[in-house]
Fold:
Amino acid sequence: MIAEELINQMIPPLKPNDKVSKAIHWMEELRINHLPVIENEQYRGLVSEEVIYQHNEENALVRDLELICTNVYVLYHQHFYDILRVAIANQVQAIAVIGEEGNFLGVVTVNDTINAFAEFSFMQESGGILVLLVDYRDYSLSEISRLVESNNAKILSTHINYDKEDNSKLRITLKINKIDLNRIVATFERFNYRIIAKFHSSENEEMNKDRLDLLLRYLDI
Structure:
C-alpha cells in the first residue's frame, strides 16, 4: 500500500486562523497528539498537544503556535514502510501526505500504517523480510530469485517501488519462507547487493530485536 491509499479521512487539517480551542477539541475527540496545519492547500507543519499546553491560551490562534515537522512529510506514492520510518524518526503520530502538485492531501497515522502492515497476507506466514536497493538498470527478479533459491528458500511475495531519494534505484521488498536469513544475506552481499533492511530470526537474534524494541517503545506497548 502507498501513502495516498492510507490517508485517514477522519483527521481534518487546521488553518492558521483557527482557534487553539478547536485544536484541543479535535485532539481529544480523535485521541491524537498531532494535527496538520495548512494554508492555501499547502502543508505548513504539525501542531502538537505539548506545544498547545505550553502556550496555555485557548483563545489564541493556531498561527500563534510554534509548528513542528514543517519539512517532514511523505509523497503520495511512497510505501507504508517509508511512512513508519519517518514517523519513528520524528516521534510523531501523524505524517502529512503531499500530492504531485505539492498540495496537501491528508495525513496517515502510525496506527493506520501498522494496520496496513498487519493486513498483508504474507505477514501471516512464517518467514523473514529483506529490503534490497538496486539500480534500475541492474534489476532482475529472476536473478534475485535464483540467489534466494540457491539457499533452499523461496520468495513468498515481492513489493517494488522507486527509491524516494534516487529514482534511478528500486527498493525491492522480499518475503522469504525462512526465519533465519543469514545465509541468504551473505549470498546477496557476495554478489554486491545492498541490503537496507532485514527482519528475521536467528539463533542469536529474535525478529531483529533492536528495531522491534524501538517501535514498541515509540508506541508505548
About this structure: Residues 37 and 120 are 31 Å apart (CA to CA).
